[in-house]
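2024-03-11 09:14:02 INFO worker-7 job=invfold-0412 stage=load source=structure_tokens
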């Protein structure tokens, strides 16, 4: 169990670095490794040694972000939670839209700096150029990933 607890903490710290509350990271980490993959609220509270209110708040947060889902199981009266299938792949697909958004914002900012010295425009120019590159190249990367998955199936 010590290795599992270490994984939960490492995962939670990594997710916290990306803006997710640490407890949400622990919940997601547990749902990625637990058996069975569906866990009830009391299961999560016990394993994570956390308050019911904290776990409840963070499960709602994770559901809202599409990272986990609430499910019902045959013969059970309570709800269960599990990691969303294909969440990580869906993140890749969403990244392409994010790159387009950053590119549009960079263009908008550059329009405001029209005629300004190059050093004033440098950060937004880099933002636009990187975003354009990733927006153009990322779909091919996604396709390569899908091809890898098909080969593994």
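2024-03-11 09:14:09 INFO worker-7 stage=emit residues=153
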């Amino acid at each position: 169990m010590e290795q599992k607890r270490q994984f939960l903490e490492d995962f939670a710290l990594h997710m916290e670095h990306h803006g997710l509350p640490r407890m949400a990271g622990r919940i997601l980490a547990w749902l990625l490794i637990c058996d069975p993959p569906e866990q009830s609220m009391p299961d999560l509270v016990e394993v994570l040694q956390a308050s019911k209110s904290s776990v409840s708040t963070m499960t709602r947060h994770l559901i809202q972000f599409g990272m986990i889902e609430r499910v019902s199981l045959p013969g059970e009266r309570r709800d269960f939670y599990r990691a969303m299938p294909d969440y990580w792949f869906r993140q890749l697909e969403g990244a392409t839209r994010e790159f387009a958004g950053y590119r549009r914002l960079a263009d908008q900012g550059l329009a405001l700096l029209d005629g300004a010295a190059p050093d004033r425009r440098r950060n937004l120019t880099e933002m636009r150029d990187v975003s354009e590159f990733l927006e153009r190249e990322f779909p091919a990367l996604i396709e390569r990933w899908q091809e890898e998955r098909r080969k593994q199936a």
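2024-03-11 09:14:09 INFO worker-7 stage=report msg="The mean pLDDT is 95."
2024-03-11 09:14:10 INFO worker-7 job finished
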